[in-house]
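Worked example 2:
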Amino acid sequence: MVTRSSLSYFTCTSMLNVFFYLINHLCYVNASEHYTVMILQHVKARCPVYPRTQIKKFTVPDDKVLWTVEYKEYKPRFYTAPSVYGKPWADPDIDDLKFKPTWNSIDGNVNRKSYVGNYSIKNGFPMNPVGRTGIYGRGLLGRWGPNHAADPVVTRWKKQADGENAIDEITKKPILQFVAIKRGDTGEWALPGGMVDPGEKVGVTAVREFQEEAMNSLKEKSQWNQQLKYFFSKGVEVYSGYVDDPRNTDNAWLETVAYNFHDHDGSTVGGLKLNAGDDAVGVCWVDITPNIELYASHKDIVSEVYKRLLK
């Protein structure tokens, strides 16, 4: 299976850059029971300044991302956020004598496997499987290596006043909407996802995060078991893999599993009142359009959902 991503992410000025793009963005994935997209974009992970800091990252050109490409000048700064140290959900420092992780495997109740495949270990540090980011350490992330998240993509068809599906004037296709939250840290619209707790099933995380971030209402939560239990038991996995997130570092990165929960006639979640909670400052139904801008790799995920539902 081939993943095709837009060339608009890079301005390819040479055949070398085109070659790098193809290597870094086309991925073959075997899926025995379902079709899984693998997104290996690596643009936001190379943002010039690390999030929530004033730390300038070492510049990583397109043709220097891969670890297999020599970059003798590469000397990124080390950074692990003070807020990470000592937290129950975070790893100790690599040089902590009591910290003996089992990389590329299930380490106790912590999943240190990567959806991308086995990642390499260099001088005791797990290395980002997609490449250089311009900074090393853990940054804002709790785990060395993959930090697993789950993202629910809750969708419905946009309706007109007469109850019929709204049609896009340009594409002449039905307009799909999804539940988006506005992040409190960056102000960007995003999927209402979150981190997988140790030992927690990813599907459970997706549903829990939707409740916490999009249904912060006692009234709506009281209706959860009555109206939504069956609906959220029918999620379809649409993506599992690397996330192009600005918090990523050379040694810690986000990976996610995204599930689509589609309300075909809008009778289940389509009529619920959405209320922002947890880390969100806003929540609403958003039209999926070609020019939509979302946090991290979320645009690619919702675009994949749209393509599937139009089939």
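The first strand starts at residue 77 and ends at 80. The two ends are 17 Å apart (CA to CA).
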